């Protein structure tokens, strides 16, 4: 299926070919610069998710797989499963509950730090310099809301596992309830995260943000075309 990245590349290449065949320098340079800009940005997006032999810094997301998992765990333990949050929830809803629904609580949690961590990992990598030329971290800000929604769904799925629910219930009568519950939750989170593979993480992030990054290809083609036009007028 054609997408905006492919359409931009094809249109700029078509202008390049038409300009060359008709010996129209204006069309030729517009197409040449537009194709160069669009192709470069497309390659930059591709390099986020895939290793390209000979291109240092490519495949940054799979390469930072362990950092990504650590950031997710730290976010969940420090912002969601804190002693205060667990205590409030247990005292209000779980003392005699048979069905546990954490979704209303999850909806109130600010997951923006998770996205900020992902942006920081990318910008601090070898790939950050290339992104800086395309607008820096601001270029990927449109991905914030899709990322947060996906994270909330993932956290909700973890909280609905029977193992998770049973672990919380079993620990209610323990003298060291809070410490034990947090340790149990951490173990479950570790187990769940250990089931993830670099491929799954790459696909998850790719599905969320790649369609938004496609606009970098479009704007690369547009700005390249404008530069090509100006070059013929100078």
TrEMBL record:
Name this polypeptide is given: DUF445 family protein
InterPro entries named among the record's database cross-references: DUF445
Organism the protein comes from: Aliivibrio finisterrensis
Alphabetic keyword roster: Membrane, Transmembrane, Transmembrane helix
Highest taxon above the source species: Bacteria
TM region(s), chain numbering: 33-49, 213-233
Pfam families: DUF445
